[in-house]
Amino acid sequence: MVSTRRWMISATVSLLVGILVGGYLFAKSQPRSILALNRCDHCLSQADLAGLLGSAGVQRLGGHLPFVVLETDRSLVLQYPFAARHRHYVILPKRDIKDLGEVSPENSPDVVDLLYVARYLIEKHRLRNYRLYSNGPGGQAVTYLHFHLVADR
């Protein structure tokens, strides 16, 4: 009887702590269709889950994430860890924006900052042969707006 009661108290406390921690981590994230009660074509997609976790990481950890090479008030730049022959940066807004289709007057300064950061990197490293691109929703591995700046070394 006592062990069952302890187990129930532990389970309840764990649930409440999980709700509080989850609420804190994901409070500034846009909702994603990870769980849905009705029919959903993209529920539990890896891209949405990665975007949700990425959003929480960027907003809560910021410059403490691995591979961060530059941070502004609105953006983070990560050195892409698997680029062997090219200089490759991933430029992310700190605000959770899923893709360019989600850009609004409210978050447009964040997107403009991404372009200024790309320009800064291009000038700092004297890049000449480079590509700056972002994939749309159908081509994103992570549902979180980001630009890739890829250049010859």
TrEMBL record:
GO MF term (any one): catalytic activity
Span of domain HIT: 56-153
InterPro entries: HIT-like (IPR011146), HIT-like_sf (IPR036265)
Any Pfam family: DcpS_C
Gene3D superfamilies given in the database record: HIT-like
Protein name: HIT domain-containing protein
Species, as recorded: Eiseniibacteriota bacterium
Lineage start: Bacteria, Candidatus Eiseniibacteriota
